[in-house]
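We were asked to recover a plausible sequence for a given structure. The inputs and outputs are reproduced exactly as logged, with field labels preserved.

PROBLEM: sequence recovery
POSITIONS: 768
GIVEN STRUCTURE:
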């Protein structure tokens, strides 16, 4: 709910099943009214066929990026870019999930830049009018000596330098490093000597204030009437978009860390160790070096310091004695600067609102600046209960970055505050359960965690409001039509759960798929404790259920990002190294063959040097698409699949080199696939800098096959993974050798390795 992007899920028909409130910022939308309605209802009529086709491909198993126009009312629309992938249940697509970003402003900016460029190129006589009327477009003229001869008002706004200050100065002054200056000199040389143009280069520049800015830069040559050649340089400020992207990456990294840390924290039973670990984790993930966590109590000193990090013992003892009721903190939140959803920044020039006796000054000095952190600044983050009441405070200082906090930098702190709030309430609840059954029942009604009491026969006796909401049940349904076994995704999982409970008397944090009454499946963490009679029969058992669906989605996303190549969307080298030994193991197990195709782009370095990396990236992406279109469907993504499922898959091996794994295929069959890919790719035309260029590839093929008979080396029933890793290395070496033979024989061809990797069975075959 806290991100700045539109996040949504759809069913197989394209109807919304979830959408976060961010969409409401982009038009007169009400999220609740959109649930159950078609995604296509919001799409511009001209874009609907494209979006329908994209959804079809995604449900077929392909995760895709795509752009579309979102209708904000009957006439107006905004441009969005989305990334979607299929939601699978037991290997079958059940819907789609996606994240969308508003790219309207960037689209407009790019259109303005392209318009200005085309107009200048087409009608040089109109250049002055374009310069004067181009909004948000910084334009400069540079002579052959690299000196600035023209500087429009937008340039002054972007760089902070007046025309008087900059005219006659080298343009390279706006760059940070010597390497950047040399690169610009080379670009300028190409503009003047080779009449080259460069469009939308992303660059980092230096403002007069010393701040960094990011721009899209374009350059092209013109020859005025006096025949003195000039280079026209234009920039659009994309700093906000760049920082938003960096913030999103940082947030994803923080969420990944939080997911790992929170799972570990929940296993800590010792209270003192738990809170100490929380404080250490906050410092590890956030932008701050010191933390003090307090929990409000009804009696003086009205708060209990439960954890600290980076603060001296004598300072802790001093402030612990100061009376700090909740009302004081509520006043701080009124007087301070509100950040995020539950944070308050108190700059040093407002320290008068604080109790001077309760202040522990920061230990680090910082350079002065409008956005700089000061050693006497403070940041408070509220911990709230399920009713929104403040129950404690996380106080931090000593910024690592030296910058004032923002909505983005307080986000990890607020995540921890919510996590800690819930953990505190759970621990308090646990203590009160031990002392009073009556108090237990009243407290759990306000807890977000679902709690059930189930009889030995599987009838739900009691359920707290959170459990009823989680399971979509009415209070009168818990003991009638809906039984505990109905929660489980399969009867086999239910039987296993009950067997484990009968043997061990309790189950801790068991993760299972459960079903709500409306048949919606969700991931849950279950903790159960059984109460038995003298004969050992279960009288009843209490069950705590936490909905961990979002955490599971996050874990799956993190796992996917770790094995997917960012540029091409195919598997990366890490996945290849992990999976190839497993494919060979399967081939050995089923007495099957397996082929490996290694390929790369002919003369790719020369292409990259000529047209630069962005154009090179387009060639690499096109090759990846060509491969995917010409191999069998990949089954490796399925959670549950037949071990014999034969699906080809491809990974980016490095640079412009790819590896294709073809289970069950001989070299003769692999050769047909390789040639199909080679011939289709060489027919593709690329258009770098307006030129038509075709590229070719060279391919090498090697195979491993099963050779019958008992292994002489071992009689063991299972073969160690190291054996298959060795075979994988041999297979790669042979395919790579064949690839370089193809290179040496003139390129643009496929060569089959003369040798093969032989597999010998070390255990008896399975019966089908």
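RECOVERED SEQUENCE:
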């Amino acid at each position: 709910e806290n991100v700045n992007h539109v996040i949504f899920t759809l069913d197989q028909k394209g109807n919304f099943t979830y959408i976060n409130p961010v969409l409401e910022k982009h038009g007169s939308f009400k999220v609740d009214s959109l649930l159950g309605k078609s995604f296509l209802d919001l799409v511009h009529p001209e874009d609907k066929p494209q979006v329908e086709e994209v959804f079809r491909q995604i449900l077929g198993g392909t995760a895709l990026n795509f752009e579309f126009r979102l209708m904000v009312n009957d006439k107006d629309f905004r441009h969005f870019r989305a990334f979607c992938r299929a939601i699978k249940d037991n290997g079958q697509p059940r819907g789609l999930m996606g994240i969308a970003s508003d790219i309207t402003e960037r689209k407009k900016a790019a259109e303005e830049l392209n318009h200005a460029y085309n107009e200048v190129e087409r009608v040089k006589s109109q250049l002055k009018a374009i310069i004067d009327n181009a909004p948000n477009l910084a334009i400069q003229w540079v002579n052959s000596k690299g000196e600035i001869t023209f500087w429009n008002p937008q340039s002054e706004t972007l760089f902070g330098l007046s025309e008087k200050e900059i005219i006659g100065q080298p343009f390279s002054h706006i760059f940070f490093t010597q390497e950047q200056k040399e690169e610009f000199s080379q670009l300028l040389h190409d503009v003047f000597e080779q009449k080259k143009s460069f469009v939308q280069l992303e660059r980092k520049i230096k403002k007069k204030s010393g701040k960094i800015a990011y721009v899209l830069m374009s350059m092209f040559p013109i020859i005025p009437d006096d025949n003195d050649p000039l280079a026209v340089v234009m920039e659009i400020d994309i700093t906000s978009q760049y920082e938003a992207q960096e913030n999103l990456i940082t947030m994803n990294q923080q969420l990944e860390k939080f997911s790992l840390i929170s799972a570990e924290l929940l296993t800590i039973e010792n209270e003192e160790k738990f809170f100490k670990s929380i404080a250490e984790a906050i410092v590890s993930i956030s932008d701050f070096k010191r933390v003090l966590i307090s929990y409000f109590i009804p009696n003086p000193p009205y708060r209990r310091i439960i954890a600290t990090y980076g603060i001296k013992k004598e300072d802790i003892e001093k402030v612990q004695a100061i009376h700090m009721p909740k009302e004081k903190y509520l006043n701080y939140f009124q007087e301070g600067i509100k950040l995020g959803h539950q944070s308050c920044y108190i700059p040093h020039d407002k320290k008068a609102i604080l109790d001077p006796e309760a202040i522990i000054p920061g230990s680090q000095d910082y350079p002065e600046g409008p956005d700089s952190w000061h050693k006497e600044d403070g940041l408070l983050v509220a911990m709230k209960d399920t009713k929104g009441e403040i129950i404690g405070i996380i106080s931090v200082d000593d910024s690592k970055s030296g910058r004032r906090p923002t909505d983005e930098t307080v986000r990890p702190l607020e995540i921890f505050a919510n996590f800690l709030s819930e953990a505190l309430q759970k621990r308090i609840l646990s203590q009160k359960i031990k002392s009073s059954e009556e108090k237990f029942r009243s407290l759990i009604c306000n807890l977000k965690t679902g709690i059930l009491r189930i009889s030995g026969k599987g009838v739900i006796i009691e359920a707290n409001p959170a459990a009823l909401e989680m399971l979509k049940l009415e209070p009168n349904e818990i003991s009638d039509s809906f039984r505990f076994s109905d929660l489980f995704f399969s009867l086999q999982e239910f039987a296993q759960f009950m067997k484990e409970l009968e043997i061990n008397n309790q189950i801790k944090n068991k993760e299972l798929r459960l079903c709500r009454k409306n048949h919606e499946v969700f991931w849950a963490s279950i903790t159960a404790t059984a109460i038995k009679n003298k004969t050992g029969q279960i009288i009843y058992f209490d069950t705590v259920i936490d909905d961990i669906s979002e955490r599971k989605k996050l874990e799956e996303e993190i796992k996917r990002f770790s094995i997917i190549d960012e540029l091409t969307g195919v598997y990366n080298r890490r996945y290849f190294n992990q999976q190839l030994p497993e494919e060979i193991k399967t081939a050995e197990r089923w007495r099957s063959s397996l082929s490996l195709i290694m390929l790369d782009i002919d003369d790719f370095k020369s292409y990259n040097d000529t047209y630069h990396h962005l154009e090179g990236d387009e060639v690499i992406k096109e090759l990846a698409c060509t491969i995917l279109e010409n191999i069998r469907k990949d089954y490796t993504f399925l959670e549950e699949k037949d071990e014999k499922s034969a699906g080809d898959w491809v990974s980016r091996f490095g640079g412009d080199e790819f590896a294709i794994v073809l289970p069950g295929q001989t070299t003769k069959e692999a050769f047909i696939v390789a040639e199909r890919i080679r011939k289709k790719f060489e027919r593709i035309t690329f258009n770098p800098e307006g030129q038509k260029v075709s590229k070719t590839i060279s391919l090498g093929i090697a195979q491993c096959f099963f050779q019958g008979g008992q292994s002489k080396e071992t009689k063991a029933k299972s073969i160690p993974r190291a054996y298959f890793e060795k075979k994988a290395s041999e297979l790669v070496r042979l395919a790579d050798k064949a690839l370089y033979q193809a290179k040496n024989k003139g390129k643009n061809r496929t060569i089959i390795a003369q040798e093969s990797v032989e597999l010998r069975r070390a255990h008896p075959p399975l019966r089908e």
